[in-house]
Design goal:
The structure holds two protein chains of two kinds.
Chain A lengths: L4 H25 L2 H17 L10 H24 L18 H5 L4 H6 L3 H12 L4 H8 L3 H26 L1
Helix pairs in contact in A: 1-2, 1-3, 1-6, 2-3, 3-7, 6-7, 6-8, 7-8
Chain B lengths: L8 H9 L5 H13 L1 H24 L6 H9 L28 H18 L4 H15 L6 H12 L9 E2 L3 H12 L13 E11 L2 E10 L4 E8 L10 E5 L2 E8 L2 E8 L5 H11 L1
Antiparallel strand pairs in B: 1-2, 2-3, 3-4, 4-7, 5-6, 6-7
Chain lengths: 172, 284
């Protein structure tokens, strides 16, 4: 099967999107290996379904939503296989914030410090604060209500500010 | 615009920060901030977290993309007989490795501490100290610019120069080899990429990473421009592996061999870029 020019253009856009897609996947999986697997699977699915992409809006929103759905599926499979695994944040009533400031101190780089935030916080922060998606679009991508987007974004900002302040105070 | 009536103050202030409040609520929050010190404190904290997080996430975009990931996207579905390469395998879940203590992080903290102390001694406002801290840490971790950034920018400019693509044309091939070998200190042979349907157009001498850098330019049948760039570097015993990175729509595959660093540059979505790099690394 030879790809059409349209298909090539779609692949080109996907490749250009890779850095951002991988960053988004990192907020879901919070480890590089899973993030790369997730991105690969999402891209393969996007290519096989590229005929469904209507070209309206941002391609990344479409691929992000696909990526998030794949991750939810993967978490469910892991729970079945191992009887454990991360519980999808969208299914939790209350977020369990397990990362301590101490853990953050030992993070090798700033982005690893951010990765200590729960999935639900970092994904929302990335989509709205960093990439400029509206609350509504972020909610659609993550499959959560707009109100939850707003509360998680606020919690993420407070948490990040607390992290940086605690580090400075600890050294003072 | 989303209504935040009835939500906690920090959520409302966060939405205010994003400019996603209805006009009536904006006026209400303005009034609160004008008289409530606690509310202003929360608002400053939200801004601090917003700026700190944005810098850290921006840095993630500079990380190299695994070569396999790019290759699989370019090749996915091209061969009907080929089984799809699914990302996840049905293997037991292994917990991620524990992060080690960073040598850089304490330096960032020291830098931020110095700024904090200086700010405090001078009687600066708390909010100003926080801003300075974000700035210091952000600068500390700002992505280091490498010669590949320079190469990508040159490529973006020169690949569009239809009439003035090269400095010395391909017809002066012997001169190009002599000139660039002397200028860069790297002995090389002009790679013949005709099997990859690339025509040698000529060469330029650039400055990348502060060093003289050779740029050999090729054109494909679709008028896309590819380049091979190299410069002198710290010697390595064996040829390093090919590493792919991207700068927007430009793909770069780099390696080191002997006393030189090399990179093949072209459109990031071109599925042949890696194969071209393999040929160049074996023949240059």
């Amino acid at each position: 099967m030879r790809p059409t020019a349209e298909s090539n253009e779609f692949r080109r856009e996907l490749v250009n999107l890779l850095p951002k897609l991988r960053r988004f996947a990192m907020t879901l999986t919070r480890n590089g290996s899973d993030a790369d697997d997730l991105v690969q699977e999402a891209c393969e699915r996007a290519i096989t379904r590229s005929h469904l992409w209507n070209g309206e809006g941002r391609l990344e929103s479409w691929v992000y939503a696909m990526t998030r759905n794949l991750w939810v599926d993967e978490i469910r499979k892991r729970k079945v296989r191992t009887g454990s695994g991360t519980v999808d944040v969208a299914e939790q009533d209350n977020l369990h914030i397990e990362a301590s400031a101490d853990k953050a101190v030992y993070a090798r780089q700033l982005h690893k410090l951010i990765m200590t935030m729960p999935e639900g916080l970092s994904s929302v922060f990335l989509l709205v604060n960093v990439e400029g998606h509206s609350y509504r679009v972020a909610a659609d991508i993550l499959g959560i209500p707009v109100g939850t987007v707003m509360s998680r974004l606020s919690a993420a900002r407070i948490r990040l500010a607390t992290m940086i302040s605690e580090q400075a105070e600890r050294r003072a | 615009m989303e209504s935040t009536q009835g939500l906690p103050l920090e959520v409302r202030l966060s939405a205010y920060l994003d400019g996603q409040l209805p006009e009536a609520e904006v006026e209400e929050i303005d009034a609160i901030l004008a008289i409530d010190d606690d509310a202003r404190g929360v608002y400053e904290k939200l801004k601090l977290g917003s700026e700190f997080g944005a810098r850290a996430f921006d840095r993630m975009l500079q990380e190299p993309i695994p070569l396999d990931l790019v290759r699989n996207i370019k090749e996915a579905g091209r061969n009907e007989d080929e089984a799809p390469k699914l990302g996840f395998v049905d293997a037991p879940v292994v917990p991620p490795p524990v992060s080690r203590r960073s040598a850089l992080w304490p330096q960032a903290l020291v830098a931020s501490l110095v700024i904090f102390l200086a700010g405090g001694a001078a009687g600066y406002l708390i909010s100003e100290q926080k801003q300075a801290t974000v700035q210091a840490i952000g600068n500390q971790f700002a992505p280091a610019r490498t010669w590949l950034d320079d190469v990508a920018e040159y490529h973006r400019i020169y690949s569009r120069q239809a009439r003035h693509l090269v400095e010395v044309p391909a017809s002066d091939a012997a001169h190009i080899v002599e000139w660039l070998s002397v200028s860069t200190g790297v002995k090389f042979a002009l790679p013949d990429l005709s099997a990859q349907k690339l025509t040698f157009e000529g060469a330029r001498l650039l400055v990348a990473g502060g060093k003289p850098t050779a740029q050999l330019l090729y054109r494909d049948a679709e008028n896309e421009i590819f380049a091979i760039c190299f410069m002198q570097s710290e010697p390595v015993d064996d040829r390093t592996g090919l590493a792919e990175s991207m700068r927007n729509d430009i793909g770069l595959i780099s390696w080191q061999k002997g006393n030189a660093a090399y990179v093949v540059v072209g459109p990031s979505a071109d599925p042949d870029l890696e194969r071209i790099a393999e040929v160049v690394s074996a023949t240059i």
